[in-house]
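Dear colleagues,

As part of the handover before I leave the project, I'm documenting each prediction I ran so the next person doesn't have to rerun anything. This entry is a single chain, and its sequence is reproduced below.
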Amino acid sequence: MVEEKIKGMFANERVIAEAVPLAKSLYDKSRFGSPFEKERFQYSLVEAFYLFEKGKMDIYDGKKKLNFESFLKKARKIEPNFWVRYCVYKDLRNRGYITKTALKFGAPFRVYDRGVKPGEQHARWIVFPVHEGSNFTWYEFSAKNRVAHSTRKRLLIACVDEEGDVTYWEIRWIKP
């Protein structure tokens, strides 16, 4: 028996797919994608790539079915930091955390405690993925912490090394 796959259509900064039973099931269980228009779902590029890598989704650009390299090339063109972001997304999902985009919070991702779905409770963390070789100023660091504090979330800095392994640092304001 051939397992059903979601057929995603590359649409610039996202992937759009019909609401087939697998798409609905993945949304209901683990909040992959988000409902979009009538009977469709939209996925961030990292979500779509994760489902593609797991064999749950095929991704097309028009009539052309994308492979690993072609999707990665297109995603990097749109998001130069795509690979670092994807490594963090994949690591968090593999650890059992629901991870969603967090543009309205001024961060790449928001992460929910294990077992919590968006809409049931608020996200616990906002996550800023960085490559181990990158740096930022104290002002940029402080701004990230301010964003987390003002949204009542904890700040995670997710550092990705050359092998794609991720180390997390939780940052908090303290009063001495």
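The chain has two domains: 6-78, 82-171. The first helix runs from residue 21 to 30.

All the best with the project,
I.
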